[in-house]
Amino acid sequence: MSGPAVAALTREQAESAVAAAAAQRDTIQANLLDLDASFGKRLLAGASLDGETQRRWAGASAALTRLWETFTAYAAVVDQAAEMLPRARKSAAALADIAALLTGASVPLPTGSSALASRDLTRTGTAAVTLAAAVGDMRRTFASIAELVTTVERVWNELAGPVQDLADQLGAARQQAGGIADATLDEAAVAAEAGLGELRDLLNRNPLALVAPAGGPVDTARLGRLRQQVSAAAARAAELAGLRADADTRIAAARSAVAAARGAWQDAMAARAKTEVKIVAELPPLPRAVKLADQVAALDGLRAAGRWTRLATELDAIDRQAAQLTAQCRAAERDALALINQRDELRGLLDAYRARAARLGAIEDSDLEARYARAQELLWTAPCDLPSATAAVTGYQQAVLALSGPRGDDERAR
User: Fold this and answer.
1) pLDDT, tens digit (0-9, with 9 covering 90-100), for 167-203
2) Which of 3, 171, 206, 324 could cysteine-pair with 53, CB 3.0–4.6 Å?
3) Vertex 387 angle, CA 386 and 393, to 5°
4) For residue 369, how many C-alpha atoms fall within 13 Å in the half-sphere facing its CB?
């Protein structure tokens, strides 16, 4: 049984059809070469794959081989038709042969071709399809392979660079904290390194595991968690490196702070001693600064041992305790001296009202003089009983104001 009839072509139609077929052949070849040279294809072809990526690439690789075989057979038919054109100008038989090549089942299919559905059931020998059917089959196969290749490229483009950047950041953090033994840093760095290794391995062996089905977005959740881990490790390394670099300065500052606290303690003790001689008072005990001196003495040992975290903790504690001790001692000094100031103010107030009594002509008043003598005795006796002296001065003040009459009331109002 013969095949289907082939439509006749004029010489002009044959030349136009051959030119169009040659142009299409060149376009197909350029696209196939681009696919072969693509980054994604080279990644897939050169990697040790597993999982979904291995399964899909096995099928795509075989399909790509058949695609090139189909193209080779297809291009040979186009070349044959082009070679026959000169004869077609003089031979009707050659023109008919060109028409058969361009429109008939002239492209032999490779074994196992996916174009089996395009074969002619009545054709014997090697199965063949038309140029158009071969192009349709290559187009479908190309699209399927290109989708896989571009998906793999997309995963790599979105993840490979950031993964390397994180690895570089982690390496820089390790270098920055070189020689520093720190459990927190080691734990963070080891966890980040393990996560980066797992992600890199998955990216190399099964990149399709990192993308949603049907061309969805790349899964960047792991990358986000790794960024947090690397950021924590880098921050810790910077902190430790800073502690190491600033150790001498901070230790010197701690010594100065403790010396200042010691000075404040000594000033408070002196003020208390002075007050206790002059004023009857029960002052609260001062905190001791001996512990701070012991803590400062241990700092050099921590620095020499490279125990930077412990050193930082001790420095923070010393700074805090020294500042607290200094503030307490300064407040105690002020409180102690305030008692002396209060006594001196009472002395001045007593003298002022003594002068007022003199202006009122009451200097010879025996009761008033007795009140004055009592207040004066209390204020000029060491140590001074400040509450009793205060009461005595107040009594004398009220007695003088009582002598003033209405003007005394005005004075009290003022």
Assistant:
1) 999 999 988 888 777 788 888 899 999 999 999 999 9
2) 206
3) 85
4) 7
Evaluate if residue 406 carries a pLDDT over 60.
Answer: no
> Is 368 in contact with 396 (CB distance < 8 Å)?
yes
Using CA atoms, how far apart are residues 349 and 70, in angstroms rounded to an integer? 119
Nearest to 268 by CA among 319, 326, 318, 324: 326
Q: Can you give the three-state secondary structure of 293-333, one letter per residue?
A: HHHHHCHHHHHHCCCHHHHHHHHHHHHHHHHHHHHHHHHHH
Q: Give me 272's structure tokens.
A: 């208390």
When pLDDT is cut at 50, 70 and 90, the band that residue 256 belongs to is: very high
Residue reference for tokens 């399809």: 129
Eight-state DSSP code of residue 210: G
* pLDDT per residue as tens digits for the range 229-242: 999 999 989 988 88
Q: pLDDT of 292-318, one tens digit each? A: 888 898 998 888 888 888 888 899 999
Q: Identity (one letter) of the amino acid at 398?
A: Q
pLDDT of residue 245: 86
Of 162, 164, 147, the closest CA to residue 41 belongs to 147
Place of tokens 């049907």: 214
Helix (H) or strand (E) holding 175: helix 131-176
Residues 6 or more apart from 119 whose CB is under 8 A from it?
109, 127, 128, 129
* Cα 254 to Cα 246: distance, rounded to the nearest angstrom: 12
Query: 19 pLDDT exceeds 70?
Result: yes
Q: Find the angle CA(157)-CA(61)-CA(218) to the nearest 5 degrees.
A: 25
For residue 383, say if its preceding peptide bond is cis, omega within 30 degrees of 0: yes
**Averaged pLDDT, 242-259:** 90
Angle subtended at Cα 36 by Cα 132 and Cα 113, rounded to the nearest 5 degrees: 40
Residue tagged 């810790």 (tokens): 236
**Cβ pair 240, 180 in contact under 8 A:** yes
